[in-house]
Design a protein that fits this description.
InterPro entries: 2Fe-2S_ferredoxin-like_sf (IPR036010), 2Fe-2S_ferredoxin-type (IPR001041), 2Fe2S_fd_BS (IPR006058), Beta-grasp_dom_sf (IPR012675), FAD-bd_FR_type (IPR017927), FNR_nucleotide-bd (IPR039261), MRET (IPR050415), Riboflavin_synthase-like_b-brl (IPR017938). By secondary structure, the chain is an alpha/beta fold. It is built from seven helices and 18 strands. Helix content is 18%, strand content 30%. The strands form four sheets. Strands 4-3-6-1-2-5 form a six-stranded antiparallel sheet.
Length: 314
């Protein structure tokens, strides 16, 4: 884990239906590392559970804040946060990492959040306001009960447009975004996959829209028809075969080689691994085009090898 940070749960509360907020303070008196809006940390919940959560506090604050939606059909991380963690518990996190960074320039900024996607968007709104930017926020939720941080957003007045599906049905997204100036804006969005797909369609039809997305889930494309088997070699020379229908992460885990991972869908960056030799077949949603072209790192939860062998720094 990069830049291990020890934290203590200083406070906890419910901020919306199925959404629990944790305030994390330094566990050893050392100030928490700085971060920028859009950043997230990997939170080690147990030896078997590490999950990635966006920071939704104000950058520069002496505590961190995360908010977690309980996923009843998930893999256990959110249930642990909701039902096992208590005030006073000590945990380990990574240093903050940002693959969804806000850039404030001359262009209008339109922020879009769907459900728990408000977490990285909240500090972006604060930063845009502090910078004097021309910005707006479209805050979407299934219902009023499911809408988090409504009171905080109210302080921005008409810069924030809210919509809940129980009040008139699903939003006409294109009309709403056009009304906010999205057709020639930098649009930053986080939310469920259908919302992000609709935003991609919106941007494709408006060439002056610059769209930046933060995803909760991947596209289920870790294993494809026609994939081939290959060998992963680790730094000590051990070779691990990867079957055509198997991910690198699964093959490594079955061989007893533990790689820190969270989403297992190529969207969080937790499992990022240095490539020593070989050409990765990138299938993540984290690395930039330049990083992909360099071939210096990969996400073994979804990415593969274009050839017969790849050597990883493990």
């Amino acid at each position: 884990m990069t830049g291990e940070v020890r934290v203590r749960v200083a406070a906890a509360r419910q901020v919306a239906e199925r959404v629990r907020e944790l305030v994390l303070a330094p566990a050893n008196g050392t100030p928490l590392p700085g971060w920028t809006p859009g950043a997230h940390v990997d939170l080690v919940l147990t030896d078997e559970l590490t999950r990635s959560y966006s920071l939704c506090s104000a950058p520069g604050a002496d505590t961190w804040r995360i908010a977690v939606l309980e996923e009843t059909e998930g893999r256990g991380g959110s249930r642990h946060v909701h039902h096992a963690l208590a005030v006073g518990d000590e945990l380990v996190t990574s240093a903050p990492r940002n693959d969804f960074e806000l850039v404030v320039g001359e262009r209008r900024i339109v922020l879009v959040s769907g459900g728990i996607g408000i977490t990285p968007i909240l500090p972006m709104a604060a930063a845009a306001e502090a910078a004097g930017a021309d910005w707006r926020l479209l805050h979407l939720a299934r219902s009023e009960a499911a809408a988090a941080y409504v009171d905080e957003l109210a302080s921005y007045g008409d810069r924030v447009v809210r919509h809940v599906d129980t009040d008139g049905g699903p939003i006409d997204l294109a009309t709403a975004l056009d009304g906010l100036g999205g057709a020639d804006a930098d649009v930053y969005a986080c939310g469920p996959a259908p919302l992000l797909a609709a935003l991609e369609d919106y941007a494709a039809a408006r060439p002056d829209t610059h769209l930046v997305l933060e995803r909760f889930t991947g596209d289920g494309d870790a294993v494809r028809e026609g994939d081939h088997a290959f060998v992963v070699e680790i730094a000590d020379g051990t070779e691990i075969p990867v079957a055509a229908d198997q991910t690198v992460l699964d093959a490594l885990t079955r061989a007893g080689i533990r790689v820190l991972s969270s989403c297992q869908e190529g969207v969080c960056g937790t499992c990022e691994t240095v490539v020593l030799e070989g050409e990765p077949d990138h299938r993540d949603h984290v690395l930039s085009d330049e990083e992909r072209e360099s071939g210096e790192m990969m996400m073994p939860c979804v990415s593969r090898c274009r050839g017969a062998r790849i050597v990883l720094d493990l």
